[in-house]
Specification:
Length: 260
């Protein structure tokens, strides 16, 4: 089938599955195992390879590489995946690699993410929803980045780290441990610097909820408690402050330890 929205210089494998209204720009290459859903626009000079699925109404700008083999020496051409959801903006020169069989076998990008130029998302990462990755930020393998988190430009995240909900990092931060929800982090190594109060206000958090989150931050970082002691206190505080539930859950699931 000929698609009217595919530039004549683009190379689309006949086995690829593209919705009728998908747009593909000049000199882009779409591999045989790629699926692209309705309303998605692929710019010029984009390469989409491997078992890659892209959802609805995404915008992929020029010179990006999506679904290429992971940068992992253990990779032996297994049929792993890249899955991208809906309504994502993917700017110039981004590189998203598919997963490895040593982990989930899939790299996932959720919905409504704003991903700026030169961002790298490595194998087996899971970027959830409504996140922002500013220019040149990079996720090493196996990173989880949760809803509404923001990485400042040139932020580097070590493999297996978790970035909690509503986190924000400053430009040039280097993250070696997990960042709990709501925390502002910066530095090399990244350290906590209060909560992301302005971001919470913009997302409609009440004054009471923000006050509860500030109190929880002090419990976690200012009262000289061990992590286990802080978790016990926060578990009790969460009984009357449901916004702390995600903080407690995150701390219980942390495997690398949190930034201090």
């Amino acid at each position: 089938m000929a698609f009217k929205n595919i530039h004549p210089t683009a190379i689309v494998d006949p086995k690829a599955e593209l919705a009728d209204d998908v747009t593909v720009g000049a000199f882009s290459i779409i591999g045989p195992d790629v699926k692209i859903d309705s309303g998605t626009r692929v710019g010029s000079h984009v390469v989409i390879n491997g078992h890659t699925s892209i959802g609805k109404k995404n915008e992929v700008f020029q010179f990006s590489s999506l679904g290429e083999a992971p940068q992992d020496k253990k990779y032996k051409d297994e049929p792993t995946k890249l899955e991208i959801g809906d309504h994502n903006t993917i700017r110039e020169f981004c590189t998203f690699n598919r997963g490895t069989v040593q982990d989930k076998g899939v790299t996932k990008i959720g919905d409504h993410n704003w991903i700026m130029a030169y961002v790298h998302i490595a194998h087996d990462c899971h970027v959830h929803n409504h996140t922002i990755l500013a220019n040149n930020s990079s996720l090493a393998g196996h990173v989880d980045m949760f809803d509404h988190a923001i990485l400042g430009g040139f932020t580097l995240v070590h493999q297996f780290c978790k970035i909690g909900q509503h986190v924000i990092t400053a430009v040039g931060s280097v993250v070696f441990k997990d960042i709990p929800p709501y925390v502002t982090a910066s530095g090399y190594d990244a350290n906590p610097h209060g909560i992301n109060a302005e971001g919470l206000k913009r997302r409609g958090f009440s004054t009471e909820s923000i006050t509860n989150i500030k109190r929880a931050y002090k419990t976690l970082y200012r009262q000289s408690l061990t992590l286990e002691e802080a978790k016990q206190v926060l578990t009790q505080e969460a009984l009357n402050a449901p916004e702390l539930d995600i903080l407690v859950a995150f701390l219980n699931q942390s495997t690398r330890g949190i930034i201090r």
